[in-house]
């Protein structure tokens, strides 16, 4: 995997940094120093934090600490679930979500599609979304009235999986990320900026994992290996980050 050529914005750096914390908060001095690794000035960082506050994405306690709120906290919850990869037993049943609303405004339709995708459902055809019931489907209150949830038992679950998800593409991307983690030692100050980007890439990729039952996955599925390798790599990276923060 080659690093992205798309420059990171101050907001994306700050959001990713805070998303990686538990709780999701950091002092402004550390945020400024971290953003500086990507060529973002102290003023640019403060402007981005002010805009995040105005957008309801972050709050300040008045003592110089910033904390994520709103939809970014929901993203952190999804990120944690993706990272753990926890699933329930599967006995052949599927969730079936049917959109019952019609004539919705474009922004409402977009929010609904986003919510269904975040719940790891995939669209079979317009308004019909499905997935195995080995993970719980949780939709925001704003979407529940527009979606009817049912259960189904497909006659050919493997064929349905192939129609709903591109497992080959996910697996290939995983191989690239695993290779990049092997190549990038997560130690030393020089690893901080590329490691930050790699960590964000792995976490985004894990959120795209459909978390299918083992019986429906192709042989050699890399999900568990990617998670296991990332846990070790991330521990080393965070140790490096802590040492760098204390040195500042």
Q: Characteristics of this structure?
A:
248 residues, 3 domains, disordered N terminus, Methane Monooxygenase Hydroxylase, Chain G, domain 1, 3-stranded antiparallel β-sheet, alpha+beta, 10 helices, 4-stranded antiparallel β-sheet, Alpha-Beta Plaits, Arc Repressor Mutant, subunit A
General description of the model:
This protein is of the alpha+beta class. The chain folds into three domains: 10-72, Orthogonal Bundle (Arc Repressor Mutant, subunit A); 94-153, Alpha-Beta Plaits, CATH 3.30.70.2650; 165-247, Up-down Bundle (Methane Monooxygenase Hydroxylase, Chain G, domain 1). Helix content is 52%, strand content 12%. It is built from ten helices and seven strands. The chain has helices at residues 10-19, 28-36, 42-54, 71-84, 106-118, 141-144, 157-164, 167-183, 192-207, 223-247; strands spanning 25-27, 58-60, 65-68, 94-99, 122-125, 128-132, 147-152. The chain has a four-stranded antiparallel sheet, with helices on one face. Strands 1-3-2 form a three-stranded antiparallel sheet. The longest helix has 25 residues, at 223-247. The chain is globular. The two termini are 31 Å apart. Residues 1-5 have low confidence and may be disordered.
What is the gist of this entry?
The protein is α+β, with helices and mostly antiparallel strands. The chain has ten helices and seven strands. The N terminus is likely disordered.
């Amino acid at each position: 995997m080659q690093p992205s050529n798309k420059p990171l914005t101050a907001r994306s750096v700050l959001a990713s940094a805070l998303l990686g914390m538990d709780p999701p908060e950091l002092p402004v001095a550390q945020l400024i120093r971290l953003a500086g690794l990507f060529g973002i000035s102290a003023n640019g960082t403060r402007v981005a934090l002010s805009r995040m506050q105005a957008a309801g994405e972050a709050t300040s306690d008045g003592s110089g600490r910033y904390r994520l709120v709103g939809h970014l906290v929901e993203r952190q919850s999804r990120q944690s679930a993706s990272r753990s990869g926890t699933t329930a037993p599967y006995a052949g049943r599927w969730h079936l979500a049917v959109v019952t609303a019609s004539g919705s405004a474009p922004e409402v339709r977009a929010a609904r599609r986003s919510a269904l995708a975040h719940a790891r459902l995939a669209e079979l055809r317009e308004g019909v979304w499905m997935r195995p019931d080995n993970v719980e489907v949780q939709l925001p209150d704003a979407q529940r009235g527009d979606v009817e949830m049912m259960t189904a038992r497909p006659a050919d679950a493997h064929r349905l999986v192939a129609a709903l998800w591109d497992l080959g593409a996910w697996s290939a991307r995983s191989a690239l990320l695993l290779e990049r983690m092997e190549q990038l030692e997560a130690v030393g100050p020089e690893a901080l900026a590329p490691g930050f980007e790699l960590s964000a890439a792995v976490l985004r990729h894990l959120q795209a994992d459909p978390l299918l039952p083992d019986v429906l996955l192709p042989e050699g599925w890399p999900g568990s290996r990617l998670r296991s390798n990332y846990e070790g790599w991330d521990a080393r990276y965070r140790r490096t980050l802590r040492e760098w923060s204390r040195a500042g």
